[in-house]
Design a protein that fits this description.
about 450 residues; OB fold (Dihydrolipoamide Acetyltransferase, E2P); alpha/beta; single chain; 22 strands; binds S-adenosylmethionine; 6-stranded mixed sheet
Amino acid sequence: MNPVVDILSLDHEGHGIARIDGKVTFVDGALAGERAEISVYRKHAKYNSANAVTILKASAQRTEPRCRYFGRCGGCSMQHLEASAQVAAKQRVLEDNLARIGKVKPDVMLSALHGPAWGYRTRARLSARWVDKKGGALVGFREKRSSYIADMASCEVLTPDVSALIQPLRELMDVLSNADRIPQIEVAVGEHVTVLVFRLLEPWSDDDAALVREFADRHHVHIWEQSKGPDTVRPFWPDIAPELSYSLPEFGLVMPFRPTDFTQVNVAINRALVSRALRLLGPQAGERIADLFCGLGNFTLPIARSGAEVVGIEGSTELVARARANALHNHLANARFAVDNLFEMTPEKFAALGHFDKLLIDPLRSGAIEVVKSLPESGAPHRIVYVSCDPATLARDAEVLVHVKGYRLEAAGVANMFPHTAHVESIALFKRISIKIQPLSRP
Ligand SMILES: C[S@@+](CC[C@H](N)C(=O)[O-])C[C@H]1O[C@@H](n2cnc3c(N)ncnc32)[C@H](O)[C@@H]1O
């Protein structure tokens, strides 16, 4: 018989937490305050993993998932929780991490940045596979906890135009002779163009190429192909096409990009995040500012608009070239860029970059501990805005900034970049309070 449990709270992944004879049990599909019949699918030494089978007492915050594939598709995990409660849960995750890992508390919790809850996703990697048992091709996200592709015909978080392409893409794959040699289709939506990048393990046949061209024309999309590594990505049809781009109207910027370049997935939240980051950073003409992990210049160019001198540093040569081109495109001469591996930052390398008044940091999930540890004792930037896609590493780095480097955590808050997923994007403002006094040298 299935156990019946009370859900005590929600974990950082959006699972309910219950106890069975004292053992922690993470329940997929159950919310805090609920009573549920559950089925345990894995027993670990210290905890169980379970699925909710029947909700016997529902939370007031439970809502009907909009997507009919929710629960099977691995793309979303929180559609059953009201959108505002999702944001509150993310805010709690951020506060918990800062307190538990970083042993810090922001002076101010910033209001969460909200955007549209549906149809927001402009980037995706869709998996593709011919499945004999289904008698056709599947195109979509992977199923939860599985390498199988979800049998889906639409998606509520992709932009509506891209969602509407899933079924036609499946039909296209059904008629291509080499569908089993196309494992992935990457999607990038720009303001004027949508690009689909087909990962090809073998070239198109002439017949397939004609079918793909006809698909592109019928659905008003541009097709690119990728035969091997990232340097083999190139336009297929139309072969001469306008560039993808997004804009940051508050700063009068247009940012062209290639379909495989890193860009933030949620255009509305990205605009709000850039705007908040710039308000917190407060760049001024005459200042020298660094933007670390700068990508194609998403924060660098808005900083440059203020008149400050800005140096963007980034690990990818292609993105630095793109950032330079974007600075030119927007007539900004006060933004410079350099390629460097910031995971190998040292105090010596940091000092060699020269003095910075302020810093913006936007690293990958693994954070920026090497950068943080390399900040000098004297003459360090007096203000740091840290944009993070993992609150655990933000908290780890915050501990060093606050307890070792003499900063104060003035403010922190979340940006709901990925509604209906457990992903927590956040932003934090650090200000330097203690400047170590160097002992006076005696004559
Ligand atoms: C979260 S993205 C932020 C990009 C940019 N700030 C934006 O908003 O579009 C992180 C960036 O870190 C870069 N990166 C990854 N590894 C790196 C490394 N070892 N050193 C420097 N940059 C790296 C990635 O190429 C990516 O552009």
